[in-house]
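ARCHIVE CARD
Drawer: 12
Card no.: 0347
Subject: one protein chain, sequence and derived structure
Cross-reference: see card 0346
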Amino acid sequence: GGGGASALVGAVGTALGNMVGSLTVGKKKYADVEDEMWELKAKCDQLQKDFLRLIERDAEVFEPLSKAYGMPRETEEEKAARTAAMQNGLKAAVAVPLSVAKAAYEVLPFAETMVVKGNKTAVTDALVATMMARTAVLGALFNVKINLESIKDEEFVKETSKEVEVLEKKAVAFEQKILAQAGVSKSVVE
């Protein structure tokens, strides 16, 4: 689903940023940032693994929710069991894409470093990594929002919605900051 697809986009964006790091290390011109690049590359490697696990996890949490929709609802007991299973499934279906969005947001500082300090011949790759990270955040949050619409726990919905709104705004602003640092006109990406 969309959460897994967003995780895949995050993984690809992270790999792209990691590639910029690879094109930076070992170059005399970038010797002063080599240690930092190696450190970022290691963090990117871990994030890529996290994204791949989240793709699998997104598919896993959908299965019980899918089964809940097919549960019988003839008696009041069956209806109550179905509702409980659906509510639990929906909360799990919120948790995974929210984790995807948070992980994708973590890519943005790495992408920024690659844009600012990485190999200048690959700056556009770092910019694409930036845009992919933002897209992964927003895509995952779309899935969170749609599932929140069906959750009856008002406090959970309120708190999660607040978290979604903050993360969404931060991701868009961070992307704009990085693009501006590279001299990309805001009108180009609107």
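Annotation on reverse: The two ends are 26 Å apart (CA to CA). The first helix runs from residue 2 to 24.
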